[in-house]
Amino acid sequence: MATGRTHRPATRSRGIPEATVARLPLYLRALTALSERSVPTVSSEELATAAGVNSAKLRKDFSYLGSYGTRGVGYDVEYLVYQISRELGLTQDWPVVIVGIGNLGAALANYGGFASRGFRVAALIDADPAMAGKPVAGLPVRHTDELEAIITDNGVSIGVIATPAGAAQQVCDRLVEAGVTSILNFAPTVLSVPEGVDVRKVDLSIELQILAFHEQRKAGEDAAQTAATPPRVPRTTGGGRKGPDGDVPAVMPA
Amino acid sequence: MATGRTHRPATRSRGIPEATVARLPLYLRALTALSERSVPTVSSEELATAAGVNSAKLRKDFSYLGSYGTRGVGYDVEYLVYQISRELGLTQDWPVVIVGIGNLGAALANYGGFASRGFRVAALIDADPAMAGKPVAGLPVRHTDELEAIITDNGVSIGVIATPAGAAQQVCDRLVEAGVTSILNFAPTVLSVPEGVDVRKVDLSIELQILAFHEQRKAGEDAAQTAATPPRVPRTTGGGRKGPDGDVPAVMPA
DNA sequence: ATGCCTTTGTGAACGCGTGCACAAAGATGG
DNA sequence: CCATCTTTGTGCACGCGTTCACAAAGGCAT
């Protein structure tokens, strides 16, 4: 059974660290804002605060792209916008398909941040026949049957999955089979893909759970363990510890 | 300009590394699925593949929580579900507010993954007076004027921002002022918050840009190796990366 | 009870990412 | 042309996260 090999062990792509790549869009956004205000140049310090990062980190990130700054002055905004765009591959047009036009899929279709960054929604696809033909964000929803044809006809290599969890893997398989090699997954499932296919996942629930953890910790510091907290099981070696099926409280499942 | 101190330098909370905390929801989801199938125990290897991670990493993650496994057998599913839920703070009820009921806000309001994990949508808030009172996901949309009252009345400590970028910082300030200490930000902006407030951001456009980077790189490698079927034409063939002032097209400013 | 087999828990090594601090590079003014 | 000042680019050290590899621990059969 094909185990999901999703991780990229040392995707240090071509000398550009993954962490740096993840920050480039952040810099690009800040630079675009400066560009719209017709700011000609910007120092690493200014740009760093605008992007919410450390200035040393920003300079090191840029050093992976090349020496695009001028000492004593800073960086030319327009020039840097272009260099980062090129490095990220945004100077070309990326057709994407969005599969699963529920609330989230519709929100994505209407999201303006795509078109402005070189991404073009080639098609909206849904499995519900009743949705077919309905216009969403100015595009008619296509039925899943057409998926393969849409992919090949438009040369789509990036797919967005916004289906329920149960359908995600099946949709993913079809996308990959049709030629998609990058997938943005919003369904709360671990996708299994063959080598060479990139998957990034966005899970709304997971983000909230991480926040809850820190929130609990903050609250716990104020009032030390309010609710009756059964203290962690003392790891007494050999002692009759946790009853595997005895003391487990009622926890609601999904 | 008060720089937003959003990063957590060494938030090694109570000995639990941040990276581990980020994976706990993943484990929890896999365990919940097993629980629904009434699977009594699971080995680290099985659970790891289900969650899409390395088994050694999973065991080390769990070791931060305590010794909850049984050697030679594995982990008790129900017991582990409870322990992780407790550690994440999901055994209590977390009221959240969603501000900005556009396409995305509505999608979030309808998202089932919240309620099932201990999160309760206390209110939907929007600045548009025309939206006020309209039911979305079974809840009437409230106007922004009521924001502070809603926060305090419901004891909300987690807020979700799904407004346009321009309104995000203002909304954020009001949330924080009213007592919110954890924020999930979907607006494409860097939020500036005081010490003690956690911010996590989800940026759809950034994820796509990261995918585009890898996609471009993959296309470049293909084109370099086999000139058979160049799917996407890379900007510069041969992948020579830096050409500081060589092939720069029109965008060049100064 | 004893030995074998399975699986956990973890010590240790390694690699990546971050931040400091400073020398080199260029602009600017006299 | 030289001195000074600003800002970049980076060598270096440190800490976190990941992975390996194995001893310890428990179950199970005999």
TrEMBL record, chains A, B:
> According to the UniProt entry, which residue ranges have a biased composition of type Low complexity?
223-236
Q: Which InterPro entries match?
A: CoA-bd (IPR003781), NAD(P)-bd_dom_sf (IPR036291), Rex_actinobacterial-type (IPR058236), Rex_DNA-bd_C_dom (IPR009718), Tscrpt_rep_Rex (IPR022876), WH-like_DNA-bd_sf (IPR036388), WH_DNA-bd_sf (IPR036390)
Question: Which GO MF term does the entry hold, naming one?
Answer: DNA binding
What residues does the CoA-binding domain cover? 89-190
Which UniProt keywords are present, listed alphabetically? Cytoplasm, DNA-binding, NAD, Repressor, Transcription, Transcription regulation
Q: Which Gene3D superfamilies match?
A: NAD(P)-binding Rossmann-like Domain (3.40.50.720), Winged helix-like DNA-binding domain superfamily/Winged helix DNA-binding domain (1.10.10.10)
Naming one, the record's GO cellular component terms include:
cytoplasm
Pfam families, sorted:
CoA_binding, Put_DNA-bind_N
**Which cellular compartments is it found in?**
Cytoplasm
- What SMART domains is this protein classified in? CoA_binding (SM00881)
The UniProt annotation puts the region (Disordered) at 221-254
Q: How does it assemble?
A: Homodimer.
Protein's job: Modulates transcription in response to changes in cellular NADH/NAD(+) redox state.
Family, according to the entry, reads as follows: Belongs to the transcriptional regulatory Rex family.
The protein, known as: Redox-sensing transcriptional repressor Rex
